[in-house]
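Troubleshooting: if your tokenizer reports a length mismatch, compare against these two reference records.
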Amino acid sequence: MKSDTSGINPAWVRRVVFLLDAVDAAKSPEQLALTGAGFHALKGRMEGRYAMTVTRNWRLTFGWDGENAVDVDLEDYHG
């Protein structure tokens, strides 16, 4: 996994790295239901994707294929 954190708000780096490590270790989306991670399946136009809370509006979002997360992104899909 790439460890370049440039472009990420420095206040978020620890949280983003924690969540990415959890996503990398998981073999299914259900394994990501960590206390405090805010894991949830997305609905509507983003159905089929999942999200974990980084900050109030920002989420780590991703799809799932077999035993791997795919199309991982850091985004504010609320605004």
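Reference record two:
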Amino acid sequence: MKARIIAAVCSAAVALGCGLSQSVSADGEMVSYEPTAENVKTLGRTYYNGESLWFSLTASGAEYQFTGTTTAITITGDGNAISATEGARIGFFADGKKVDDVMLTENPQKVTLDLGEDKLHTVSVVKLSESANSSVLIDEIEADGAISPTESKSHSIEFIGDSITCGYGVDGKSENDHFLTSTEDGTKTYAYKTAQLFDSDYSMVSYSGYGVLSGYTSNDKINSNSIVSKYYDKVGFSWGWIDGKNISQVDWDFSSSPELVVVNLGTNDASYTKGKADRIEAFTAEYVDLIKLIREKNPNSEILCTLGIMGQDLYPAIEDAVKQYVDETGDTKINSLKFDVQNLEDGLGSDWHPSEKTHAKAAHKLADKITELYGWSVNDVDIDPIDSSSEEDTSSEDNSDASSDENSETENSSSEATTDTSSAADSSANSSATSSASSSAASSSSASGNKDASPQTGVTAVASAAAIFFAASAIVSKKKK
């Protein structure tokens, strides 16, 4: 028996499950398998530590196939994975359809899928919530038939982004909802949907509140802690620890580069640049350096730089960065795309984040650009959400121009550091003041232990992380098969 030490930066709380979890049925003979390369295909960035498959990033996980009726997956989360607000949300898919959706409530937790007909099934285990708030391990897979990895697909795309790519709030009922990992779903994002359109393998490297030059900031000071390049060469990042190790300590193996890298960053940087020429110049320089880093790690990949879903403020700077990079290096395997700003009529997710309908529109636009540039063929697959005509329109007084102003104002009205925010529009000064007041209130609530407050990834959280690490730990005993 091995004692697994799980340390949490935030205290764990019992989470509400949003899917069916049960024990393995005694009917039929179940065989146990380890999540090795011989048994599963990995989705996104993962790391096999000799016992379990470890992953944290949005939509990462594993996929396998077997002929039978029943399979079970045992998952262990880090110290943050069991939490009502920050816990790990895991989706289970069979034959292309989601069959279970679970917020982890136990450590370890076994989820059994009874798939009915005795036939060949394809099963995917996908982390729906984002990286910083939890990492998880697949410890064991059981099935009543031999499992094997699915085949690699003809295309592969890596998406680098912020909370938009994380699917922040996509299941939120309105912009008035705030951060919960239970309303994040990476499989409803433009990134995942684009991969579906091309039947492509994918990887999503995204962190809410992160940027190129600066992560989200509400005090006019640069937030150099929340920078994507800091973790780009790692398997992931989480505030939780397992066995005294953090997933950010594990280097990512770039030996298998994606065919295409899509970058969707700049929304949070705009909260710092705010239209100031010297800051925009600094952003442009950092963006060039980011492109160089991506090229260093992926020497043969096409690169497509995008921005715009929650504000287009820095898109001209991104175009400048691409031009500077091409002029300096002669590398022409790079292009750019400006997304349309989200329309209020398409609905809003938590804290003004994109709805699934907005994500679907962005996926179609991105797919059109990919087809134009690289000649990829779009598959006949429906990625559009079911439209409910009875859904309440919470913004009937607004129009698309108002949407653009609001989205330039903020990617998260709660003004938490994990929230992506673009620069304030001149006409939104009053809203900015309100947002700042909300930030103070949220910070106060967080300090008093309000579990509904959004998690922070700014300097304050970093300074306190070490102290909390030693205070918050739990020992979980588990048998390793």
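Descriptive notes for reference record two:
- The chain has nine helices and 18 strands.
- The chain has two domains: 2-151, 156-384+398-447.
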